[in-house]
Design a protein that fits this description.
Strand content: under 5%
Largest sheet: none
Shape: globular
Number of strands: 0
Radius of gyration: 21 Å
Number of helices: 18
Distance between the termini: 15 Å
Low-confidence stretches: 419-424
Oligomer: single chain
């Protein structure tokens, strides 16, 4: 099989991972989790980070040892065979279009304090973002890695600066933070709901496994880059949650916090960083999606046209195809009035299934010394399933449809062997 271009260094990998996870949620999700859990929202983020770190390590170990563009689908193939692998791969492939729609909805929220857009203007802007991502992605990930490393450091600097300013200033006893809301004693349902929403912030661990083959030295750099990126992201989310609790009344709590310290520039700085981070997240998801589609095309699961690489060794036909599907999903969500929360829960549920299947594969593929981390990761996945509740039905229905389609494809190929060769 043709190899993809190996250009990513450890620090670029950390930047890609961190901005993928920070992405659209870094300045909004903390506010949403406070709305669900009140003062206990910070504990929701702490629990989520403690659950996600061992899961990250298992994914990183799998990505380092079984480097392949198909990522989780390849792990599942090695452990449970091709049918399970293809179901997981298709589940990931077709969870990204609604995820892209949700990410764009959240990304454009950052423009609201700066510019007023009608619903139609916002839709046109969102579609133009797809075009921008295509031109960024078609030349490979080296440029993206450099840009996103710088973006991660900028976000870290801004959040740290706001934290220091807030901690060192004298408290204003006349101002009661609007977002600071005590939770009912003994009521943990809010924490569960906050965790279910917060899972969105760590979607991307599985996506980066598709890019492991493009690290210059995957065995040396992949695990440190992944763990450092995820730990950094968790700490930033915890810091942003605490800051959001101190916010005055404002549609975007982090903008309100920033403006109390630095004036009206907050809406431009936070809005700009949030908007660029959202685009960066989508860039990595489409990069991962195109690699998985390229791999499936090489295996004869998807049309052979998707295996075409451009001069930069990027699967551009696969990239264009799934961007068009995602644009259609965005248009449908606009026409149907589907909001961010519902789309996010659908994507969270689908990817929790992908996570669980990958961790079960790790139980078979990795050494016994890895099993304590694998067991903790499975427990974390169980907690995520519980937190998502009825949203899991979306993932189960999608998985069932994928299974039925693949079984039907197998039966058709057995009856039409000539057709199979022609298709491949």
């Amino acid at each position: 099989m043709t190899r993809l271009n190996q250009t990513i260094t450890r620090w670029q990998g950390m930047g890609l991972i961190a901005t993928t996870l920070l992405g659209t949620g870094v300045f909004i999700l903390p506010q949403l989790t406070i709305a669900e859990a009140g003062d206990q929202a910070i504990w929701a983020w702490v629990i989520l980070l403690l659950g996600i770190l061992p899961l990250t390590w298992v994914f990183a170990e799998l990505g380092r040892r079984f480097t392949h563009a198909a990522g989780p689908a390849y792990f599942v193939d090695r452990a449970f065979g091709p049918l399970a692998s293809r179901v997981i791969g298709l589940l990931f492939l077709f969870s990204v279009p609604p995820g892209a729609a949700a990410a764009l909805i959240m990304t454009f929220k950052f423009l609201e304090p700066v510019i007023t857009l009608s619903a139609e203007q916002q839709l046109c802007g969102e579609l133009l973002v797809f075009l921008l991502i295509f031109f960024i992605n078609r030349r490979g990930l080296q440029l993206s890695g450099r840009i996103q490393t710088g973006l991660t450091l900028t976000i870290l600097f801004v959040v740290t600066l706001i934290l220091l300013m807030t901690l060192t200033q004298s408290p204003d006893t006349d101002t009661v933070p609007v977002m600071h809301r005590p939770a009912a004693a003994g009521d943990y349902s809010g924490i569960m709901q906050a965790i279910g929403l917060g899972i969105w912030s760590f979607l991307g661990i599985e996506a980066v496994t598709h890019l492991a083959g493009e690290f210059k030295d995957v065995k040396r750099d992949y695990i440190p880059a992944t763990l450092t990126g995820v730990a950094l992201v968790g700490l930033i989310y915890i810091g942003c949650t605490w800051l959001s609790m101190q916010a005055p009344e404002h549609p975007l709590a982090m903008v309100g916090v920033f403006e109390t310290q630095f004036g009206n520039s907050g809406r431009w700085i936070i809005g700009g960083l949030g908007f660029i981070s959202g685009i960066a997240t989508l860039n990595i998801y489409f990069a991962s999606l195109s690699r998985l589609a390229w791999s499936f095309s090489n295996d004869g699961i998807l049309p052979h046209q998707l295996r075409t690489l451009n001069q930069h060794k990027i699967p551009t036909i696969a990239l264009i195809s799934f961007m068009l599907i995602s644009a259609l999903m965005l248009l449908l969500s606009y026409l149907a009035g589907i909001n961010f929360t519902l789309l996010a829960h659908w994507v969270n549920a689908s990817l929790v299934v992908v996570y669980t299947a990958s961790i079960l594969a790790a139980w078979k593929l990795l050494e016994r010394r890895c099993r304590p981390a694998i067991a903790i990761s499975l427990s974390a996945c169980g907690m995520f399933v519980y937190c998502l509740g009825s949203a899991m039905f979306y993932a189960l229905v999608l998985g069932l449809l994928a299974t039925l389609i693949l079984l039907g494809q197998q039966i058709w190929k057995q009856k039409n062997p000539v057709g199979e060769r022609a298709e491949i």
